[in-house]
Amino acid sequence: MTGPRTSADRLGRLLNLVPYLLARPGILIAEAAADLGVTAKQLREDLELLWVCGLPGYGPGDLIDMAFDGDRVTISHDAGIDKPLRLNQDEALALVVALRMLAETPGIGTRDAIERALAKIESAAGDLADAPVTVKLPANQKKLEAVRAAVDSGHALRLTYYTAARDETTERVVDPMRMLMVGGFAYLEAWCRRAEGTRMFRVDRIDAFTELPEPSVPPVGAVPHDVSDGVFRPGPELPLVTLRVGRGSRWITEYYPVEQVQRDGAEWLVTMRVTDLGWAQRLLAGLGRDVTVLGPPELIDRIHAQATAALEQYAAPHALDAGEPAGR
């Protein structure tokens, strides 16, 4: 199989893709894919992602744009990517602070690369890098250290865990396998006896845990997850949600994994996989009129029922004002 397998590799390819295409207007997609060491299908997916990349504002002239002529592609607007990057003082300091924080985060396996990048930015920033800024780890650091110590003890754990996708708290016994950091969050990976499968538990969502006297013995079939592309790996078995998104809510295409984004006038048509329709309902209900749900029908019915119930609650005080008994 050709092509990168990690999100870091893809980011590097995307950063190189625009100047590569700018220097080769009208290049065949197959030829570009061969040069970049990816399949034509992967390159088309990268080009679709570039359509939602650009400068803050996300309006006309802010995003990268392309023109297709059969199997050929040309960058028609580069959104200023060809301009040299110049950091102001606030941006340079923000990078220094962020890298210092990252270097202190437990579980980071690329500390050498972080320290090299930090040294380069501190050198370029000069005296600004010595600004009196205190870097502190998140408030759940004590919990992280306690969970890590429990995992190192080799014992099973009883967890009280909040599942955001279903908005519920459950108790379960798990056999810990490892601790890891993904996307800036600490996770406990363990065999869940309740689900009879390997699960990832975000440490900040563990409300409480108890170390049990019995040893942690994950079964032979407990295989660690591949987290090279993140924790959430959408598959065809998950519900497919289709949305019509206004300008004010386009940020969801950056914050959540999406399968496809298409322009439709001033709006975008977005498709995304979700683990739970209840989670999607809560997310979309909070976005209001800026997002229209086009599918699946079950999600449309859920949101319609929720909106109807809310309207009925607003109508209830008026009924009391009209003289109806309060207990009716």
What would your notes on this structure say?
It is a single chain. With 328 residues, the chain is an alpha+beta fold. It has four domains: 7-77, Orthogonal Bundle (Arc Repressor Mutant, subunit A); 89-130, no CATH class; 141-215, SH3 type barrels (Roll); 240-317, no CATH class. It is 35% helix and 26% strand. The protein is built from nine helices and twelve strands. The chain has helices at 7-22, 29-36, 40-50, 89-103, 111-125, 141-152, 252-255, 277-285, 297-321, and strands at residues 27-28, 65-69, 72-77, 155-163, 168-182, 185-192, 197-202, 206-215, 240-245, 260-264, 267-273, 291-295. Strands 7-6-5-4-8 form a five-stranded antiparallel sheet. The protein has a four-stranded antiparallel sheet with strand order 10-11-9-12. The protein is globular, with a radius of gyration of 25 Å. The model is unreliable at 1-5 (pLDDT under 50).
What are the SSEs and their pairings?
Blueprint: H1 7-22, E1 27-28, H2 29-36, H3 40-50, E2 65-69, E3 72-77, H4 89-103, H5 111-125, H6 141-152, E4 155-163, E5 168-182, E6 185-192, E7 197-202, E8 206-215, E9 240-245, H7 252-255, E10 260-264, E11 267-273, H8 277-285, E12 291-295, H9 297-321
Antiparallel strand pairs: 1-3, 2-3, 4-5, 4-8, 5-6, 6-7, 9-11, 9-12, 10-11
Helix pairs in contact: 2-3, 4-5, 8-9
